[in-house]
Amino acid sequence: MENLTNFKPLTPEEVKKILGLTIKHDEENKLITFLCMLLTYTEDSQFNISFNAPSSSGKSYIPIEISKLFPKEDVIENAYCSPTAFFHDTAEKYDKEKNELLINFSKKIIIFLDQPHTLLLEYIRPLLSHDSKEIRVKITDKQQKAGLRTKNVLLIGFPSVIFCTAGLRINEQESTRFIILSPEITQEKITSGILEKIKKFTNQEEYHLNLELNEERESLKRRILAIKEANISDVIITNPDRIKEEFFKRTKILKPRHQRDIGRLISLIKAFALLNFWFRERKESQIIAQDEDIDNAFSLWDKISESQELNIPPYIYNLYKEIILKAFKEKNDGISSGVTGLTKKEILEYHYRVYGRVLSDFQLRKEIIPALEIAGLIFQEPDQNDKRKTLIYPTTHSTNFNPQENSGIDGGVEPNIFNEDQKMNENIDPEEIPF
Questions:
Q1: Staple partner for 287: which of 108, 280, 347, 354, CB 3.0–4.6 Å?
Q2: pLDDT tens string 202-214
Q3: In what order do the strands lie in the sheet with 282-283?
């Protein structure tokens, strides 16, 4: 393991700068992905990420590029695969007497480059939830002569798991097990991506040589290897009251998913401490986090928490803010009494006007609108002038319209049904909650 003098304390901004050599923009996405992979070298502090966004948005590019910093033997990349193929491909050995495949996922990073088979997701749910360090599942093998035959699979340890999918609909059982991310789709990011590809593919040899010669990037790779070899089992947080205070200060209405979100927040704290473990107090195989690590974790969480609270991909939440809310305001600007909702056609047209690309009508109807309805951000009402049409209304106050004034009017915006719950939870006292 490298000597302490070979490394210096590394800040989140410095990590983002190094990752920015190959990944432009997506500041929070690349930092969280890096920390997720780094935590694979702990005993049980790993968390999972799901990248949900349309095709060509760079959702698989981010984890692939970051994984290149980690030892090759620790990274497992998979495209679409069946449960049987996945387990056979990753198995270390087969016990013929027990008819059992043994798979050790300790200190492994698993990247699914496409949405895996739904049955595979069901099989590994206990693994993603960290229910037990040893999990047994049963799969069926197709034998040439014997037909279908049951086989046992023993899964040991917890990996860091990252899913990449173009599907925007998320099963609730899966969504609560992940931090849900979406790559940025801004003009600035796309421009930077195009320039980077020109730079890379016009002279690949020179491009890769410059990366190898970059001292900060190479130092980060050595740092990762040193963290792996340090065999740190866990990070102790000696100031839980600080976490409790900061979390409840930001959370007025408690939801069941917050029980998992607080776990992810704690994992982020541990990841920041692990990144600088040379400068943290160490007790055998454990290190102690500092207040700086807590601050860094909450600062990062604040930037992604809105969409996590709503349980929808950031892509859909941004589309709601940038398209639906603005189109609704524009349509109703200057109207003195009552408001009119949006048709699906108007949303598609406004999307094209803003982003210059076509949004699939199927994707809007089957994925985006249902997700926004479940999140409570929109509701649909029949058009009073044409019952064959359905109009879409935002349920928030972000449009500068007062729902209280317009409620009771045909097609008007409903009042905010969460006001009473918010009042009930505004003065929540963290000390009274046994967390």
A1: 280
A2: 999 999 999 999 9
A3: 234-236, 286-288, 282-283
370 part of a folded domain = yes
State the burial class of residue 205 (Cβ atoms within 10 Å of its Cβ: 0-12, 13-18, 19+): exposed
Q: What total of structural domains would you count in the chain? A: 2
What is the extent of the structural domain holding 380?
316-421
Asked whether 416 and 396 are in contact (CB, 8 A), the reply is: yes
Q: The domain that contains 343 carries what CATH number?
A: 1.10.10.10
Say if 426 falls within a structural domain: no
* H-run or E-run covering 112: strand 109-112
- Does residue 149 sit in the same domain as residue 31? yes
**pTM of the predicted model as reported, rounded to 2 decimal places:** 0.84
Phi, psi of 102 (to 5 degrees): -105, 125
Q: How far is CA 233 from the centre of its chain?
A: 24
Name the domain boundary from 267, 283, 310: 310
Long-range contacts of 413-420 (CB under 8 A, 24+ apart): 413/339, 414/379, 418/253, 418/376
Kindly report the backbone phi and psi dihedral angles of residue 143, in degrees, each rounded to the nearest multiple of 5, phi listed first: -90, 150
Using the 3D structure, point to which of 243, 278, 310 is the last residue of a domain: 310
Span 262-291, pLDDT tens digits: 999 999 999 999 999 999 999 999 999 999
Q: Residue 199: left (phi > 0), alpha (psi -120 to 50), or beta?
A: alpha
